[in-house]
Amino acid sequence: MSTTIPAASLQPLTRQDFVSDQMVRWCPGCGDFAILAAVQRVMPELGIARENIVFISGIGCSSRFPYYMNTFGVHSIHGRAPTLATGLALANPELTLFVVTGDGDGLSIGGNHLLHILRRNVNVNILLFNNRIYGLTKGQYSPTSLPGHKTKSSPMGTVEQSLNPISVALAAEATFVARTVDVQSQHLTEVIRAAVAHRGASFVEIYQNCNIFNDHAWEYVTEKDQRDDRQLLLEHGKPMLFSGGKKGIRLRGMTPEVVSMEDATIDEILVHDAHAPSPHLAFMLSRMNFPEHPVPMGVFRSVEKPDYAHAVVDQVVTAQSQKGKGDLAKLLRGAETWTVTPHRGAADGKGHG
Q1: In CATH, which of 3.30.720.210, 3.40.50.970, 3.40.50.300, 3.10.50.40 is domain 7-235+273-310?
Q2: pTM surpassing 0.85?
């Protein structure tokens, strides 16, 4: 039975209602502050009682998040937040769940758990803060660090290929995949709002600046004087134009290319379809990056599929209607149990293995 409090019974909430009494302990200038503020701004719009909202995290700077939200929260262990979220979704499918993680917590030790919560389409909102570094443990390279990046754990430059979080999420069949950035508050808020409105697993990569251990990691795409020429804002059903409409993306065979609108017509420009059943277009966009292409921002994919917890609950209801409610004690003491007796000679040490 759901314990969700009906929205109609709620008093209007404000941003301040979602601010906890805990001192926010991030480094001054950290991008996490902006993300926290954006989430707290969105929460009152949902019309959901704080008692029905849970923030779950693993380990890392981002994982302090549950302490700062005046809702229920779980600060779990490294990489296992998706596991906790799946269990909570099954226990009460009507809860509004958030997993807050980082590129290290979510894509390294937690990578396997992340894949499965996405492919199962658990109704949870995953916010992955990507700063391309391990911040809490003081500056080691992470799964998203670029090849050659010099850190305390790669003094000669990492030799590893970096993961692309959006490509990973799409490969795991995530039904909602988006990207935004900490310093663009309006876009950040819009993307979070869209993610929460989605029923199923939503995955949001947030470019986040770690000004202590990897400062300016996203400067090439976030600086105001160049973002229009280096960002492609994705809008469903609209042509992929950027640079104030002066440039666009068209296909040459199977390859996207940048074209000046002086040399192309609007009919040649690729139109974004976030609701396409196939993830092919979204995956192609996930591979686009500067300097060859502008960096896509916004919703890559948003499709509707049954969510995991409700599908499991439906199976349980069907099984009970066909076979009746189960009896755990009867199961444990049923015909499929047996008694293990000591092997002859085991007591005196002469038995054989």
Answers
A1: 3.40.50.970
A2: yes
